[in-house]
Amino acid sequence: MNNIILQTDDLSKNFGAVTAVQAINLRVQQGEVFGFLGPNGAGKTTTIGMVLGLIHPSAGRITLFGQPVTPHHNGALKQVGSLVGAPSLLPYLTAQQNLQLVAKLHDGVENGRIQEILELVGLTNAAERKVQGFSTGMKQRLGLGAALLHRPALIILDEPTNGLDPAGMREVRTLIRQLADDGITVFLSSHLLHEVEQVCDRIAVIRQGKIVAQGAVDELLNQSGQSVRLKVRNPAQAGELLAQLPAADVVTNGAYVQVSGVESETAVAHLTQNGVIPSEVTVQKSDLESLFLELTK
Amino acid sequence: MFWQMVSVEQKKLTNRKILWIELALAAATAVFIPLMLYLASQSTSSNVVINGPVEDMIAWPLALRLGIDLLSGSGLGGLLIVILVGTLTAQEYGWRTMQLWLSNGISRPVLMLAKFTAVLLPALLFVLAAFVAGAISTGLITQSLQGSLPAAEVAWGQALLSVLRTAYTLLPYAALTFLLAVVSRSTVVAVGGGLAYTLLIEGVLMQLLGFVGGIWADIAQYLPAGLSNSLATLNRVTAVANPTVPADGLSAGTAVLGIALYTILFVGLAVFAFRRQDLGG
Ligand SMILES: Nc1ncnc2c1ncn2[C@@H]1O[C@H](COP(=O)(O)OP(=O)(O)OP(=O)(O)O)[C@@H](O)[C@H]1O
Ligand SMILES: [Mg+2]
């Protein structure tokens, strides 16, 4: 059994009448890249806020490195680095000064480490520039640098590639894998599914505040079946026809209609009987995207 | 961890333009006022005669009080400290700086106390800046009026004590603004509320209670402004003790204690409120 370093037990949060997070149980194991997936408003940021001691849980517990974490007891967070949403940077300070301030809070972060981090996130040349003039991507990279500065054992990232261009996103993905190879545990929230699919070992999917699936990416993909994608002249009409089939689950997508829960032969036969001839038929093994859409429907 | 955090806050503070602008403002006012009085008295068309009260105001030794008196809580000192504390504290909610420190494992009370501790220095610097700038400008004026500086008549130790006392009387206003900033998370509310109390509400209240008299007038003395006034009667810049210590004033000890209690109360409430806050995105 792997070592669990972050655990939530029946963690819940209500904002007045709104239930943002409802009794979730997460298990993050040491050394893994854990993906936390969910559509907008599912409760990802709220959950992370509670884990970071910023938001008071309405119920439940958080255990980090064996210690409880609450807003009143957050010492365990010393071993955590985090980047949640737009990075918390002081606009009137330079990149280097921002890192120097964070360094003051942790023992053993020497000046060389700051240079190392600036290099790692590609900001060596901008080190002396004020953050207020930074682009979104530069700020994001600096925020990531600040999170890594004190060599945390766990790093928690809430949509870290927000605002990054494709090259920047790839850099961050590479960095995440690299961190994992160095033995750092990564907790990554995202709704960019290919991103998660590429870097994560295990995932949890949250929907309307509840965990709807949790496990290794491969296992979850194997559990969910395949789907059939058909190209047709009139996808809306084809969609309606396919929906008549028992257990069929239909999504129309541009010129395509995608159906799961049905064999491809059955789907094609049903369409042709009704005078709709598909021009293209592909059987797709479920990818994370369709799994996600299925789970969060 | 507390002192590390204070040092973080100090470092942030000294990098803020607003601190230096306010310091310059304190100094400039202390230069400007005696200079205007002096120029007015020098112009030929003026019938202001430089003697008696006006000369005391702009010539050493008594002119050294000018910078100190200017920076009282109900005057420029209150204005500057309220704007500084309100801006610094509330802005950090927007920048999510609070979240940064907390998610690095800093405890909430430590963060709050360090933040407040860090503004003690600017309070002192404001009064000191006005004192020093006023001393220089009135020194030059004195030289020009009297041909020499009566430096021997100045009790520098007393003057510095007066600077400290005045800075101390700014604390309740700093603490009140701090509380407003934490509770509202808004610069406008914190600065607006702080200024309204410091420059308006308290003054009106003092007048009103004094007007009603009796026990109400006594209560007015226990407002921050009343306590500050009591403490200010001790301020002096010469070896001669102040002639007008009102018999019915509060004792210095009471005033010091009262100011401390207000400060502790407001900061305590701010810590209490902060501990309960949800600091999401
Ligand atoms: N401070 C708050 N007050 C009231 N409701 C809130 C608050 N914060 C979050 N919520 C609600 O809680 C739910 C979860 O929000 P949360 O920000 O955690 O979602 P998310 O999964 O991070 O979404 P996104 O992908 O858009 O970032 C939403 O319905 C949101 O409106
Ligand atoms: Mg979010």
From the structure above, extract its key features:
heterodimer; A: alpha/beta; Rossmann fold; Alpha-Beta Plaits; five-stranded antiparallel beta sheet; 33% helix; B: 281 residues; mainly alpha; globular; binds adenosine-5'-triphosphate; binds magnesium ion
Report on the structure:
The complex is a heterodimer of chains A (297) and B (281). Chain A has 297 residues and is α/β, with parallel strands linked by helices. Chain A folds into 2 domains: 219 residues, 3-Layer(aba) Sandwich (Rossmann fold); 62 residues, YebC, transcriptional regulation domain (Alpha-Beta Plaits, 2-Layer Sandwich). Chain A has 10 helices and 15 strands. Chain A has a 6-stranded mixed sheet, with helices on both faces. In chain A, strands 1, 2, 3, 5 and 6 form a 5-stranded antiparallel sheet that branches. Chain A has a 4-stranded antiparallel sheet with strand order 13-14-12-15, covered by helices on one side. In chain A, α2 crosses α3. The longest helix of chain A is centred in the middle third of the chain and has 16 residues. With 281 residues, chain B is mainly α. Chain B has one domain. Chain B contains 14 helices and no strands. In chain B, α5 runs parallel beside α10 and α9 packs antiparallel against α13. The radius of gyration of chain B is 21 Å and the shape is globular. The complex binds adenosine-5'-triphosphate and magnesium ion. The site of adenosine-5'-triphosphate has 12 residues of chain A, from β2 and α1.
